[in-house]
């Protein structure tokens, strides 16, 4: 009996098989490209996970950053090299960790931040996107209440200072931060608060997530005219973490 291997093979069969092979290779390629950041996988305690999945890491690739900001090579095998003040509640993965210090200062849990680059975000022309309104005379408050000079009231009712400026996203024409000039009792200098975590009233600006005693520990921005990506993450995380960590009464579930 004659054996016919390709008796039913035609152009249509070749097309469908070539499509399936191409599609499988495409999935393999996309999955590997997706592993340029965040890999190799780690356990909750920071050690390398034994199960890294079926796909190998991609070969290292170097990307040239715009506006003369150098190069970045990924994957580079560099994890987040900072000690976190947490302890395991169980030796098994998946169980919660408990803070061992001040979680808002330590940047853990809801107050955690990512190690972003310590440089300001730039617009398409290479200029810092977020700047104080006082540095650009072209912007003005066209609608709503102008919060400048209003007192700032913390979550416990204490007046901690006043709003001295607004920081705007120049390309987007949005207010991203309010600048608080602290009084001597609650700290020194100025701090930023994300606009989304402040409520502007007729006679005050309310910040409910943290209390008066916390404002001096709000992460500072090093420049008067710009804020870096890392500073933005730390500032936002500190205020957000206060929703849980500002007082022990907030530790329990709220119904």
Account of the protein in words:
The protein has 255 residues and is of the alpha+beta class. It has two domains: 9-79, Photosynthetic Reaction Center, Chain H, domain 1 (Irregular), CATH 4.10.540; 109-247, Photosynthetic Reaction Center, Chain H, domain 2, CATH 3.90.50. 17% of the residues lie in helices and 19% in strands. The chain has helices spanning 11-33, 103-106, 229-245, and strands at residues 61-64, 71-74, 86-88, 97-99, 130-132, 151-153, 159-169, 174-182, 190-194, 199-200, 205-206. Strands 5, 6, 7, 8, 9, 10 and 11 form a seven-stranded mixed sheet that branches. A hairpin with a 4-residue loop joins strand 7 and strand 8 (174-182). The radius of gyration is 26 Å and the shape is extended. The chain starts with 10 loop residues before the first helix and ends in a 10-residue tail after the last helix.
Topology:
Elements lengths: L10 H23 L27 E4 L6 E4 L11 E3 L8 E3 L3 H4 L23 E3 L18 E3 L5 E11 L4 E9 L7 E5 L4 E2 L4 E2 L22 H17 L10
Parallel strand pairs: 6-11
Antiparallel strand pairs: 1-2, 3-4, 5-7, 6-7, 7-8, 8-9, 10-11
Key terms:
alpha+beta; 2 domains; 255 residues; seven-stranded mixed β-sheet; Photosynthetic Reaction Center, Chain H, domain 1; 11 strands; Photosynthetic Reaction Center, Chain H, domain 2; two-stranded antiparallel sheet
Task: Provide a concise account of the structure shown.
Helix content is about 15%, strand content about 20%. The protein is an alpha+beta fold.
